[in-house]
Structures are given as C-alpha cells and as structure tokens.
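Entry 14. Structure prediction run on the chain below.
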Amino acid sequence: MSLRYAILALLSVEPMTGYDLRGRFESSVGHVWHAPDSQIYPELRKMESAGLLISSSVARGERGQKRWYRITDDGAAEFRRWMNEPPDYRRVRDPAHLKASYLEWAEPDSAREFFRAHIDHFTGELQQWREQARQIENNESDMLNSRLAVTPVSRRRRTIAFKQHTYAGLIARAEQEIGWARRGLELIDDLDGAEG
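Output returned:
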C-alpha cells in the first residue's frame, strides 16, 4: 500500500504524466520504495477510481495522447492522514541475511563471493545516497526544489531537514551492511585458518 502514498507524495508537488512520475519516482522516493512500471500504472488507475487523483488527456504529437494526473483534495487528505499514522511495520524478508545464516553449506570461495557482492551492492547504494544528500545540501535536487517552490516559506526548513535525515539513515544503513560483509570475509579467513 505504500506505493499509493509514494505516488501521492510526488503528485503533491505538481501534476505529472505517468511517464514523468516514473522518472521522478526513480530519482526520489525510489530510493526508499521500489516499484516497477507494472505496478505504477495500475495503481494510478486505482487511485483515480478511488477519487484520490484526477487525470486529463492531452495531445502528444500528431496522434498520441498522454494522461496528466493531479492529486485531488481527497488525495491530499488521504496522504495527510497516512502521514499522521504510525508505520505499519511488517516482518522483514531479507534474503541476504537468510543466506548468510547458512553459509556453512557453501564452499569458502562461494561464501567470499557472496560477501563481496553484498559489499558491491551497498557500495553502489552508498554512492547514490551520498550524492542525493550532497544535492540536498547544495540546493541541487530538482525534485526537492520543485517541492520547496510549493511549500510555504515557514515549512521549508522542516522539508529539507527531514530529507537530510532520511538520507543520513540510508547512508548509515549502507555503511553498516558494508562493515558487516567485511567482517564476514574476515570470519571466513578465521574459520579457514582454524580448520586448516
């Protein structure tokens, strides 16, 4: 259900086409909530049916059409309601840590490759999140600047601060996962030495 609220968050800034929304999704909320096109477009239709969005068709080229989506007052009220509720925490599905708990079944080289892949993955995430944090810090984030343009001056500091805090948490998580995987590589070396 969080996809709905991610879409509402983006459309609270400005109307967008599904295509524009998808691009903005990947460069902003996509860092904390992944959704492929196959989920975004059907959710837009459901949200419109529920009265959270309205759309209008506009010409695209000579023959094409595109749909612009805009948040309704009901959509804004629904987003505000969701923001004022505690999160719905669910049990985590974590394939990497599940696999790590049974690495005794893997050959040492395969276990090492697992931890190296984990480091590579989170190193990429870390670089991306640091870049987002840098853009926010330097007022270079297009999405944030669009949001600030429609945010009352008295609330802009809060908007920036919560974005910075979110990326600080993502950066800390990535650093922790990289450290955990490096310790896993050391553990393999220690275990190999003890068994050798």
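The chain has eight helices and three strands.
Filed with the rest of this week's runs.
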